[in-house]
Design brief:
51% of the residues lie in helices and 13% in strands. The protein contains 14 helices and 9 strands. Strand 8, helix 8 and strand 9 form a beta-alpha-beta unit. The longest helix has 30 residues. It binds NADP nicotinamide-adenine-dinucleotide phosphate. The site of NADP nicotinamide-adenine-dinucleotide phosphate (NAP) has 26 residues, from helix 1, helix 4, strand 7, helix 7 and helix 12.
């Protein structure tokens, strides 16, 4: 393999809530970016910003030094990499595939093996920091795979995030992300219960947040999601159905290790109630609605006044 020049040409697959901001940050940093998205209309803002468009994942991979995927779940990543017109058909030996979706660690390891047989390196590099982190280029990125491959690709990841940690071999990035999702889920419940208690007790929610956020009860959820709740904004930064996917992955893995995760199971069950009321595509802050129903308490503004001015 030719010695490692710094990767410059990026194929980028998946322009959802996360991917579109991450791809935009790569364009802004001067990378030569070719994008593909299943729903092609979503490519337009990236084309307007200077990216090229591809007709398939295979096309996006053809000229690329690095191919990034950030789609929904394990079968979706398998589809865009191994499926018809997939990345594997376009990538050359020496190309690096970086999957930044949150998927099964076992599927990740299998993908890495299949790609390695064609001389293609893979990194699992799931992210945390939410839609805000994706927009601001401040994601935390946990990387599994070979350390030297990460070092070669670090400038690419630095365009999207600022806390980039090599956590081990293939699949370890995904396992680390599941640790994150366990903690995120429980912080979400902590935020929701704190808000429910405050609302029921007649505490001023804005003032409570202003003081608690800065202390030992502070969290990303309190900083980023609680203000959305107070505005009645339940649009997704991170959809309930995606958090449920991640908790399912975490609970499956824990089950195989005979590790009880009672808090995580509870969050998973409570979010099922959000789904039962039609909120699967809402942001995870919609968990407060379950607490509202359970406790007969209003936390956010009444539904008919909520978020109509949020654009
Ligand atoms: P999203 O807005 O629903 O976007 C999903 C993207 O995947 C869309 O571009 C979608 O294409 C594409 N896709 C899904 N299935 C596909 C398939 N079979 N073939 C081709 N494309 C497919 O989700 P997101 O919030 O950006 O999340 C993406 C990934 O990042 C997920 O694994 C999620 O768990 C993870 N993540 C999200 C956050 C967050 O805060 N949002 C944070 C960290 C990690 P279409 O446009 O055609 O639907």
């Amino acid at each position: 393999m030719a010695p490692a020049a710094q990767p410059d040409r990026i194929g980028f697959i998946g322009l959802g809530i996360m991917g579109r901001s991450m791809a935009l940050n790569l364009v802004r940093r001067g990378f030569d970016v070719t994008v593909w998205n299943r729903t092609s209309s979503r490519m337009q803002p990236l084309l307007d910003a200077g990216a090229r468009g591809a007709g398939s994942p295979k096309d996006a991979a053809k000229e690329a030094d690095v191919v990034i995927t950030i789609v929904t779940d394990s079968p979706d990543v398998e589809q865009v990499i191994l499926g018809p017109d997939g990345v594997i058909e376009g990538a050359r030996p020496g190309t690096v595939v970086i999957d930044m979706s949150t998927i099964s660690p076992a599927v990740t390891r299998r993908l890495a093996e299949t790609l390695a047989a064609r001389g293609i390196d893979m990194l699992d590099a799931p992210v945390t920091g939410g839609d805000v982190g994706a927009r601001e280029g401040t994601l935390s990125i946990m990387v599994g795979g070979k350390a030297e491959v990460l070092e070669r690709c670090r400038p690419v990841l630095e365009a999207m995030g600022r806390n980039i940690v090599h956590v081990g071999d293939h699949g370890m990035g995904q396992l680390c992300k599941l640790c994150n999702q366990i903690i995120v889920g429980l912080n979400l419940l902590a935020m929701s219960e704190g808000l429910a208690f405050a609302a029921k007790a007649g505490v001023d929610l804005e003032k409570m947040l202003a003081v608690v956020r800065a202390g030992a009860g502070g969290s990303w959820a309190l900083d980023n999601l609680a203000p959305r709740v107070l505005r009645g904004d339940y649009r997704p930064g991170f959809m309930v159905r995606l958090q449920q996917k991640d908790l399912r992955l975490a609970l499956d893995a824990a089950g195989r290790m005979h590790l009880p995760l009672p808090g995580t199971s509870l969050v998973h069950q409570l979010l099922a109630s959000v789904e039962a009321y039609g909120g699967a595509d809402d942001g995870t802050q919609a968990l407060v609605r379950v607490l509202e129903r359970l406790g007969n308490v209003r936390i956010g503004p009444a539904a008919d006044t909520a978020a109509s001015d949020q654009g």
